[in-house]
Specification:
It is built from 21 helices and no strands.
Length: about 375
């Protein structure tokens, strides 16, 4: 069969030439038609291959081996575009923090959502929820955890990670009964074979919750985790959560010194914790050291929430006029913090904002803010 005969009624000959020379990745509907013309079952051929690739990526993601997700994705020759390829690509862009490209893949999946299998649709929901969790948009993430909770998820790894999402999101949203239910399911059904790094993150989230009533016990559990035994991105997340538990127990000096000792202050989220410690210690020396570290920090695409807190502290420690801090809180931080939650930051924002308004005798504004906060 000639190229002209193959292309007739489907696409142009020049388009087919580009496909043949691997200059472009063809649209899936074109590929379906071309395979039908030569009596090959496209769906069985392509989907079985894409299933293997997608499952390999899910396995690596589940094990917190994000480098394997990246390396494997880059090593695969993605011959065509279909739902499983879009899903695989979404995992890659998510772990690579290429959020604009991630959103593009999700948009493509959304366009074809009626043709997705049940398992593919669940993966789409899981990925969107994961994005909202990573970017601290817990109000949005909560909607997806509620949706995933009522769906029968057959993939055991995705089902386990959806419970994990519920633990993190429910904690941030103060939905503690939901958090504890998900935590108990994970402990009973999954922890025997669950990746240790994911277990530690979940346990630390539980310690954050328990620390409200038993801060010393939670801090003791967190102190068992040493920096030397950890290495990759997921491990750094563990250290970060460890420090949150210690901060909840008011171990400000310990956290401050450890972050400096292990040279973590060039990462925005850890510099923000140093600033948090300096704020709580009310000590000029600590505050000045924090201010000196600010120029050294590197901001990534998902660091906006930490950047705003660092900027807030910088103004707090250096501003000569109360109005400077008030303006930053009112117009830059407060609107942002309604959608992007960080319990440690938001509590300070709220306390500082109310305190400034009351000092300026702007009581109606303070009451209005609190009413909206509780709505």
């Amino acid at each position: 069969m000639t190229l002209e005969e193959m292309a007739k009624g489907i696409c142009s000959v020049s388009y087919l030439c580009k496909v043949e020379n691997q200059d472009i990745v063809p649209a899936e509907d074109y590929v379906h038609s071309l395979f039908e013309r030569v009596n090959i079952d496209y769906k069985n051929l392509v989907d079985s291959e894409a299933d293997v690739e997608l499952n390999t990526i899910i396995e690596a993601y589940f094990l917190c081996d994000f480098e394997k997700v990246k390396d494997y994705y880059l090593s695969v020759n993605w011959k065509v575009n279909n739902a499983n390829v879009y899903l695989s690509r979404s995992f890659y862009f998510l772990v690579n923090k290429e959020y604009d490209k991630f959103k593009q893949e999700i948009a493509l999946l959304d366009e074809i959502k009626k043709s997705l299998t049940e398992e593919q649709a669940i993966l789409l929901l899981f990925l969107v929820c994961s994005y909202y969790v990573i970017t601290h948009q817990f109000h949005e993430a909560y909607k997806y955890t509620c949706c995933l909770e009522i769906i029968n998820i057959t993939n055991p790894k995705i089902r386990a990670m959806s419970y994990e999402q519920r633990v993190f999101v429910a904690y941030q949203m103060r939905r503690y009964p939901q958090m504890l239910r998900a935590f108990e399911v994970l402990k009973k059904e999954y922890f025997i074979s669950y990746p240790s790094k994911r277990q530690i993150l979940i346990e630390l989230t539980y310690q954050l919750f328990r620390g409200k009533d038993y801060p010393e016990l939670s801090a003791k559990a967190a102190k068992r985790i040493s920096f030397e035994s950890l290495s990759n991105l997921c491990d750094i997340d563990i250290i970060y959560f460890k420090y949150l538990v210690l901060l909840a127990a008011k171990e400000y000096k310990m956290v401050y010194e450890e972050i400096k000792e292990y040279s973590l202050s060039d990462q925005a989220r850890f510099l923000a914790l140093i600033g948090y410690c300096a704020y709580q210690l009310r000590n000029d020396e600590y505050q000045n050291q924090f201010l000196q570290l600010i120029p050294q920090v590197t901001y990534n695409t998902d660091d906006t929430i930490h950047h705003k807190f660092i900027k807030f502290l910088e103004i707090k420690f250096t501003a000569t006029k109360t109005y400077d801090l008030l303006e930053y809180l009112k117009y830059d931080v407060i609107p942002y913090s309604y959608n992007y939650l960080h319990k440690f930051y938001n509590q300070i924002y709220q306390e500082e904002y109310i305190d400034i308004l009351c000092k300026l005798s702007r009581y109606k504004e303070a009451v209005y803010y609190m009413i909206n906060k509780m709505a």
